[in-house]
Structure formats: structure tokens, C-alpha cells
TrEMBL record:
Transmembrane segments: 6-25, 37-58, 64-84
Keywords from the named record: Membrane, Transmembrane, Transmembrane helix
Designated name of the protein: Holin
InterPro entries, sorted: DUF6107
Length: 117
């Protein structure tokens, strides 16, 4: 593959990450560093998959590769950021744990949460 296509994919994914930082600012410096390091790499890797799924990104020109990697750079950030914010939220984790315990308690056929006896 031509080096210009790889450069276009990397540049497009960096632009996607920068757009994501403008849309929703990172919570802290570490979060921003993760975004800058991981999302461009994911954008380059997953750009061909985005091109095969979305018809308007299909094509072999540099512009198509750049648009696909921009889309995937932004999308990969969104998935990573959403997961990170959910896992760092104590309230979300508490609700998830309560739901898991409720479901495990209902498996025993009882009418309430498990008592541990």
C-alpha cells in the first residue's frame, strides 16, 4: 500500500480525535493523552471496516481513506470515552451491581434479593 494512503489515514484519524476533543473536552490530562494516543491508531486500523460498512466512505481515493479514518478516530474515541466514563462513575457501578444482585437473587425463585443464607 502506498505511504500516502497510510499518512492520509493517520491524519484523518488525528482530525477525528481533535474534533472529538472540541465536542467534549477530556476530563483530565490523562484522558486527553489516552485519546491522542489510542484513537488515531484505532482509526487507522478500523478505517477499512468502516469503508466496507458505510457506503459513502467506500472508495480508493485518498479522500475516502481520510474520511473513513476521521470517522473511525472519532467513533473509537466515543466508545473508549463512554466506557471509561461509565466505569469511573460510582453511581453507575452501584446501579449495575444492584441490578446484577437483583437478577441473581431472582434466580433462586425467591421474591426478594438473596440473603446469603
Amino acid at each position: 500500500m502506498d505511504l500516502s494512503i497510510w499518512a492520509a489515514k493517520f491524519f484523518g484519524s488525528v482530525v477525528g480525535v481533535l474534533i472529538s476533543m472540541v465536542m467534549v473536552a477530556p476530563k483530565n490530562t490523562r484522558n486527553g493523552a489516552y485519546r491522542i494516543l489510542l484513537a488515531p491508531i484505532a482509526g487507522v486500523i478500523f478505517a477499512p471496516a468502516a469503508q466496507s460498512v458505510l457506503w459513502f466512505l467506500q472508495g480508493s481515493t485518498i479522500e475516502h481513506h481520510m474520511a473513513a479514518s476521521c470517522f473511525t478516530g472519532f467513533s473509537c474515541w466515543f466508545i473508549l470515552e463512554f466506557t471509561a466514563r461509565m466505569l469511573s462513575s460510582e453511581e453507575w457501578l452501584r446501579r449495575l451491581l444492584e441490578e446484577v444482585l437483583r437478577l441473581r437473587g431472582d434466580k433462586g425463585g425467591g421474591d426478594g434479593p438473596a440473603t446469603g443464607k
